[in-house]
Design brief:
- This protein has a single domain, classed as Vaccinia Virus protein VP39 (Rossmann fold).
- It starts with a strand and ends in a 31-residue tail after the last helix.
- α3 packs across α4 and α6 runs parallel beside α7.
- The strands form 2 sheets. The protein has a 9-stranded mixed beta sheet, sandwiched between helices. The chain has a two-stranded antiparallel ribbon with strand order 5-6.
- The mean pLDDT is 92.
- It has 7 helices and 11 strands.
- It is α/β, with parallel strands linked by helices.
Length: 302
C-alpha cells in the first residue's frame, strides 16, 4: 500500500488496486499520474504558518507551492471531474489573510479556467478563544469543476428538513407537502465538529479534518469505483471516506510518520474497524448537567 516510487503506486492503482499511498513530495509525485485519470481531488494544503509538518513559512511559499501544483491538478482531473480545496486563514498578530482569495486568483490564470461551483462554509464549535478579535469558528471548501458536464449526486447527501410537514400555500399543489421525501439539499454551510483532542477520529496529526466532511464530497461528486486523489494526504482521511464509499484512493504524503498512521487507518477501514463519528447533528448538552448549568455570576448583563 505504501510506495516511495510514484510510478509503482500508479501501476498498482491502474491494475485494479483499491488504495495506494505515495511517500513523496506532492509536486513531484503527481507528475506520475496520467492525464484525465482522476474523478475527484480533495485536500487541505499546508497553510505555511509554521506547523511542524510545513516547509513553508509565509504567503510567498504558499503561493509558490500552489502555482506549481495547480497545473498538475488540472491536468490529472478528468473532464467533468472536480477538485475541492479545504482552506482557512493565515493569522499573525491578529491580522487575518483569507487564503481562499489566493487560491482563486491562481486558478484564474490557468487554461482552461476551473469553474467555481461552491464556496462551502465549514463551521465548528471549538477552537482558540481570541481576545483581540472574534474567535474563528469556520473554514472554507472551494469546489471547482473541470468543465460544465460534471457529477453532482445531491440525493446521496440530502439531510432532514427543519419543517418536513410544510405544505405548499398556493397553486395547483396547494396543501401538498412541499419538501423532497429524501431530505433537503445540505446547502453551503456545514456544521460538522472539527477533530480535537476528544474526537473519536483523533490521531497525532495536528490539523486533521473529519471523515464526514470528506464523505459528503465523495458521495456527491463521484460514482462508485471512481478514483479520488489527495495530494496532501496527511493521515489519509480522504482515503478513509473514499474506501468506505466504494471508491478507489491515491494519497500523497511527504511525512513518513503520517504515512504510517494513514496506512493503518486505511487498513482499518478495509476491515471495518476504523473509529468514526457519524455525520449527524451536533449534540446539545443536557441542560441539567454540571457543565451546562450557569453559575450565578455569569452573564450579568444578559
Amino acid at each position: 500500500m505504501i510506495y516511495t516510487q510514484p510510478a509503482r503506486a500508479w501501476k498498482h492503482i491502474a491494475s485494479g488496486g483499491q488504495a495506494a499511498i505515495i511517500n513523496h513530495d506532492c509536486v513531484a509525485a503527481i507528475k506520475s499520474v496520467p492525464d484525465n485519470s482522476i474523478a475527484l481531488v480533495v485536500t487541505s494544503p499546508p497553510y505555511c504558518i509554521g506547523k511542524e509538518y510545513e516547509s513553508g513559512r509565509g504567503l510567498t511559499d504558499f503561493q509558490s507551492l500552489h502555482e506549481k501544483l495547480f497545473p498538475e491538478v488540472l491536468r490529472v482531473v478528468r473532464p467533468g471531474g472536480s477538485f475541492c480545496w479545504q482552506i482557512g486563514y493565515q493569522v499573525r498578530r491578529n491580522k487575518v489573510l483569507p487564503l481562499d482569495y489566493i487560491i482563486f486568483d491562481i486558478l484564474r490564470s490557468l487554461t482552461p479556467v476551473p469553474i467555481l461551483r461552491n464556496r462551502i462554509v465549514w463551521t465548528f464549535g471549538h477552537g482558540h478563544h481570541c481576545s483581540r478579535r472574534f474567535s474563528g469558528r469556520h473554514e472554507l471548501i472551494l469546489w471547482f469543476t473541470k468543465g460544465d458536464d460534471y457529477v453532482f449526486n445531491v440525493d446521496s447527501v440530502r439531510v432532514p428538513q427543519k419543517y418536513p410537514g410544510k405544505t405548499s400555500s398556493k397553486g395547483p399543489k396547494k396543501g401538498d407537502l412541499s419538501g423532497n421525501p429524501l431530505g433537503k439539499n445540505p446547502e453551503d454551510v456545514w456544521d460538522i465538529p472539527n477533530v480535537k483532542a476528544n474526537h473519536v477520529e483523533k490521531s497525532e496529526h495536528p490539523c486533521q479534518f473529519p471523515v464526514s466532511l470528506v464523505t459528503r464530497l465523495v458521495r456527491a461528486l463521484t460514482d462508485p469505483g471512481d478514483l479520488v486523489l489527495d495530494p496532501f494526504g496527511g493521515v489519509m482521511t480522504t482515503g478513509v471516506a473514499s474506501i468506505r464509499e466504494k471508491r478507489r484512493f491515491l494519497g500523497i504524503e511527504v511525512e513518513k510518520k503520517y504515512v504510517s498512521v494513514g496506512a493503518e487507518r486505511l487498513q482499518a477501514t478495509l476491515r471495518g474497524t476504523v473509529p468514526l463519528r457519524d455525520d449527524k447533528p451536533v449534540a446539545q448538552p443536557n441542560p441539567k448537567s454540571r457543565v451546562a448549568t450557569k453559575p450565578d455570576h455569569f452573564w450579568p448583563a444578559l
